[in-house]
């Protein structure tokens, strides 16, 4: 039986599980450029050892979305204040 040494995860999804290091690397790098996974932390693992990781893209993280909303609300408030003057 072939052991599945390598795993590529994006958030809760397993994108690759197998013994081919080149295929695991390819899937890992492709996932980093796929907009479907921009909100996810992408990890390349060998067994339990973390070999590489891409963090969530700036602008796609939950805290970035909340910050953007607050900036937009502040901008709308300032525009309304300017119109009143």
Tell me about the largest β-sheet: 4 strands, antiparallel
Category from helices, strands and their pairing: alpha+beta
Continuous helix count:
2
Question: Mean pLDDT score, rounded?
Answer: 84
Question: Cα-atom Rg, whole angstroms?
Answer: 20 Å
Strand order of the largest sheet: 2-1-3-4
Principal-axes geometry comes out as rod-shaped
Distance separating the two termini: 76 Å
What ranges have pLDDT less than 50 throughout 5 or more consecutive residues? none
Query: What share of the residues lie within helices?
Result: 40-55%
Order of helices and strands: EEHEEH
Kindly give the count of domains. 2
| Count of β-strands | 4
Strand content: 25-35%
């Amino acid at each position: 039986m072939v052991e599945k040494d390598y795993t590529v995860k994006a958030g809760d999804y397993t994108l690759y599980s197998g013994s081919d290091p080149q295929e695991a690397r390819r899937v890992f790098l492709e996932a980093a450029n796929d907009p479907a996974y921009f909100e996810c932390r992408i990890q390349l693992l060998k067994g339990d050892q973390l070999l590489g990781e891409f963090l969530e893209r700036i602008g796609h993280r939950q805290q970035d979305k909340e910050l953007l909303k607050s900036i937009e609300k502040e901008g709308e408030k300032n525009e309304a204040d300017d119109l009143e003057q």
